[in-house]
Amino acid sequence: MREADDDGMRRALALAVEAAAAGEVPVGAVVLDAAGRVIAEGRNTREETHDPTGHAEIIALRQAAASIGAWNLEGHTLIVTLEPCVMCAGAILQSRIGRVVFGAWDEKAGAAGSMYDVLRDRRLPYRAEVVGGVAEEAATSLLRDFFEQRR
Length: 151
Prior knowledge:
Layout lengths: L2 H19 L6 E5 L5 E6 L2 H4 L6 H13 L8 E6 L3 H10 L3 E6 L24 E3 L4 H14 L2
Parallel strand pairs: 3-4, 4-5
Antiparallel strand pairs: 1-2, 1-3
Helix pairs in contact: 1-5, 3-4
């Protein structure tokens, strides 16, 4: 695990807290460049924007592409508090992100190793390195607390 990953995950967790405060599922994401600097970030905004694609990963990927002026994010790392879903995994592969680091596993809809493994599927022309379970307890606690408050 890289020091930049730890810093990135701390920022992603802070974004997840912001999402929860806004009534969104608490998921945050950041994109690091090859030097480990945060170049983009996002948090869930589906409820606020009424946009089904308003996932933290999608927002961070869009911002990263705008930041560098290109869709190809090869050599970059996406750090996210929850295992990406199928939609986000597809966007990650389309952006050519080389590495994905995530916190909580999503046994119901995860596409990076738990339910599906889209990011490492050998049938696809591009694959990403996946590091799961980073700051897992903190990320899982945010999600559990959020959903318990809504029951």
